[in-house]
């Protein structure tokens, strides 16, 4: 997960034209098949609003020169017709980390969708169901035979309910949606990475007693009193991490995850941030991917590449290939890479009677006070739901 010291510098070496939102043609599909698993193209109809989701996925083992037989710690889950309902579909990517990261990501992949599928309140209140499922999955992992003291997984998950998209995220994987704007296709992030670079997340973990320091700081090479690391795009490969007050562990570069019971004592939580989007005809497709994809590729670049292909199989392969190539150009290894691309086909009259930014939802409260904020990111409205753990 991430590079040796977490998120890296030179994340995106693309040109300004790539980030302009215009189509990019002539991208060659991925040819490296070692450790690669790719699903065939699949379709599912959403009869409530008469459109189709066409999707594909790909997962690729990372390359680690010192441990060439290292297993892929990423996993993904696609489950259509949740609770037998043809209008409800689930897509998720899980990026494991630590010694037992693969076991954690696979456990969470199965358990989270199982709990969602068995929740009778899912369709009445998807927000509450999503929160409950993450917290219950975290408890189930804690009670399992898997040692999650220093292992866990991030999770970026998307639930399609009719013409509405619910995106629940813990960690630093990402979901992004493509929006047609004239002759351009723009990338709109559906999630925000949860790391100490974010002031709100930094402040929250500090209240739990976490030391927030880069590796150089914790090893005494830089002044630990300097609590500013720039931003994720330019920090130089040594990001701020979380440490217990009197030890050099666990060193997580994210502030939310499922598992990581040691890090939970210093503020790492399994409470998801949830965004809600109502589909409009301008929405073309969405991408769900691990940070192995987004380490060196911006959201806009990923959307540009995906838009260049009619077949999401080819788009997955091209994006994975470019991610893999950039890792090897900038590091001596690659991360595991997992991507799901879901194209939205035939959507014409969804959202009638609403504006692009209107979202109808009922916030919920889990185990304490709730801090709810709403931010409008044109043309989408993201409603973030977060529960205090104290």
UniProtKB/TrEMBL annotation:
PANTHER family linked to this entry: PROTEIN PHOSPHATASE (PTHR47992)
Assigned protein family: Belongs to the PP2C family.
Name of the top EC class for this enzyme: hydrolase
GO molecular function, one term: protein serine/threonine phosphatase activity
Protein species of origin: Gossypium tomentosum (Hawaiian cotton)
Recorded catalytic activity of this chain's protein: O-phospho-L-seryl-[protein] + H2O = L-seryl-[protein] + phosphate; O-phospho-L-threonyl-[protein] + H2O = L-threonyl-[protein] + phosphate
Cofactor needs: Mn(2+); Mg(2+)
Protein name (record): protein-serine/threonine phosphatase
InterPro entries, per the entry: PP2C (IPR015655), PP2C_BS (IPR000222), PPM-type-like_dom_sf (IPR036457), PPM-type_phosphatase-like_dom (IPR001932)
Annotated Pfam families: PP2C (PF00481)
Positions of the UniProt region annotated as Disordered: 1-31
UniProt EC number: 3.1.3.16
Limits of the PPM-type phosphatase domain: 54-344
Alphabetical UniProt keywords: Hydrolase, Magnesium, Manganese, Metal-binding, Protein phosphatase
